[in-house]
Amino acid sequence: MIDINKALEQLDWSKDPKGLYEPIAYMMASGGKRLRPMLALTAAEAVINEGLISGNAMDDVLPAAMALEVFHNFTLMHDDVMDRAAVRRGQPSVHAKWNDNTAILSGDQMLIEAYKLIAKVPGDKVLKTLELFNEMATGVCEGQQYDMDFEHMNTVTIDDYLTMIEKKTSVLIAYAMKIGGLIAGASNAQQEALYQYGLHIGLAFQIQDDILDLYGDPNTFGKAIGGDICCNKKTFLLLTAYEKADAESKAELLQWLMTSDCDEQKIAAVKEIFDRLNVRAVGEAVMEEHTATALAQLDKLPQNAATEKLRLLAEQLTTRNN
Amino acid sequence: MIDINKALEQLDWSKDPKGLYEPIAYMMASGGKRLRPMLALTAAEAVINEGLISGNAMDDVLPAAMALEVFHNFTLMHDDVMDRAAVRRGQPSVHAKWNDNTAILSGDQMLIEAYKLIAKVPGDKVLKTLELFNEMATGVCEGQQYDMDFEHMNTVTIDDYLTMIEKKTSVLIAYAMKIGGLIAGASNAQQEALYQYGLHIGLAFQIQDDILDLYGDPNTFGKAIGGDICCNKKTFLLLTAYEKADAESKAELLQWLMTSDCDEQKIAAVKEIFDRLNVRAVGEAVMEEHTATALAQLDKLPQNAATEKLRLLAEQLTTRNN
After folding, report:
1. Scanning every residue of chain A, which has its alpha carbon at the shortest distance from the alpha carbon of B107?
2. Where would I find the beta strands (DSSP E) of A90-217?
3. What is the ipTM of this complex?
4. How far apart are CA A172 and CA A199, in angstroms?
5. Is A189 contained in some domain?
6. Under an 8 Å CB criterion, which residues of B touch A?
7. What domain range is B142 assigned to?
8. pLDDT by residue (tens digit) across B126-168?
């Protein structure tokens, strides 16, 4: 198996001007799960002809896998500016450590760096990969826009929310799977199964993220607990609470949502309402549905060590704590 | 000749979410000289086999030409946020009309849209075009970083400045020429001549821009006159003044540079120092040198209506007033 961390470490950010590339190096070194490149590589392994796994065929997937991770980190760098998030992966976000302009421009350069990696995809696959990558990137920006729109909307349904997170989070994971499969020679049906697997684990992943924002372990989560409540973010938990609440609980919830300040008391009070309405269990049930849909896709693929890994990953998603 | 404005108007920005695409439509409709796509198309015309000009060969260049204009507008949208510029082409800049987050995210999407247009370049040229486009985009970001770095540096030489504007402005024009030529089948030597022509008219263009910022006609320039002096921007005029000034003028200049506020008085006083030191004439002389170098490149190309147009353009650059 290709070591994605090692490959990412070999990207050279020690270039001039330092002000442009040092924040990229900082962001790329800050860790993260490397989920997207790992998925692209595993998708490739799942469909590739057995005899080719150890050969150049897997190396062909690597530039695109790295492009997906660089792109993901670009979105985080810009999202942190837009969301005024001061902490990322347990350390200051780029705009907090440097400033907004640095995060904007270094983020722009990261997006370009992602396309430089896409340009390294082997000749017969580069155009199709570029097209898929463009569709993915558009989906992610549209998702971020819907997310920002929701802040100013009074009524957001759970369906609206699921459409938003499908674009903002799932599409990147789904295209990571599809691009990995495409470059490794997957059939159209296999590419579609890989895409759907990614889409549904992405949805499960994001709902889990909403849950962890409040119920996660502060030592391993890497962000402040209750941040979503602080900024009145319309998460799966809040929208479900709002849908399930009786008049009294709804009034109580709305009163807290009207305060733009945030303290421990607000987080505790809203959490108490969520607990009373059992919204965590609802979230976990929806997560499990999407996990099941994702797992069903794997039956359409060759059964090998890679598909087994994808099976385990989907199952483990529901028990992660960071 | 292909109508670049008509082609750009046909790009469809009436998509959802409106919050993402409306600022792009606004930016793209705000005009500008369409210099970069026009140059890409003219470069193609200059080198293309006479018999093919009216055929599909020119249509092949169009997506890349449009990509260059979309990219240029992306850089303006983000630069206006970074520079806190409230006016662009005589109307509110995107971040001023909407907000910073809108300008960041819609700008990101514009960069992606540029790559979508690059993906439409005919199959045998798409990879090389993508590589050139990536080099260009990197140069522009590096140039913007140097520009921002200069704000906080005490000593910037005129050479530093020329390196910066070469990246920030000229590289885009140079690659517009080269990409247009490449897609139209230019030889390597022709591509290099087209590139050098673009690089040098770009340098002349940027020095002219510095001059117009202070000496332009406020009715046609589209920006407030003296904006560069206001924000103590290290332009060709200021760096030349600083280099030419005697101790007394230097002290006077430094005193004005220490005020971060700006009013008519400051602009008039600094302009008076510039006039005394004759910096406008120095700028115009350097501009003319670069124009001459650009014109010399045209001798290496076929002599036809397109090269004649490029010759006129270089000559007219020195007399533009907006």
Report:
1. A108
2. 91-92
3. 0.92
4. 8
5. yes
6. 16-17, 19-20, 78, 81-82, 100-101, 104-105, 107-109, 111-113, 115-116, 118-119, 123, 126-127, 130-131, 134, 137-138, 141-142, 144-146, 148-149
7. 4-317
8. 999 999 999 999 999 999 999 999 988 888 999 999 999 999 9
